Every structure is written in structure tokens, then in C-alpha cells.
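Consider this:
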Amino acid sequence: MTRCLLDTDILSEIIKGRNPVIATKAAAYLNTHGRLTTSSVSVAEIVYGFRRMGRDDRVTQFEASLKAGRGVVFRRRGGASRWKDQRGS
């Protein structure tokens, strides 16, 4: 699998966790390369979108996943993962 830069649309789909094909491919990419790669523009657009929705909790989760240098991991309010880092960490 070739390294690639995720654009905002794909990163958004990974975060939403609604498309199983994208989630599976993202997990495979993460397993192969150890991290997802995106641009600072995409990061700013994702943060802007969360803030527009009034979801500062999601901004905090997103920023924490970036600082940890791992896959994007979000938890639903009930605690269940939408998409997990598939490396076992």
C-alpha cells in the first residue's frame, strides 16, 4: 500500500465512521504505515467544522489523536468506539 496524504473529505469520512469500506481501508493503511497523514489545511478544516457544530469535545479528541501520532479515534458519548486504531494500542 502506497503512502498518501488524506484530504479533508476522506479524513471526515474516517471520523464519521459511517462508511465501512473507508474504515476498513483506513485501518489497513494504519496497520501498514503506523499513522494517517493529512495536511495542516485539512486539520484546520476539521477543527473549524467541529467548532461550527459547537463540538469542542470533538476538537479535544481530534487534537489528542494528532498529538499522540496515531490513528484518529473517536468515542461516542456512550463510550463505544466508532473507529479504533487497529494496531492494538
Summary: The two ends are 21 Å apart (CA to CA).
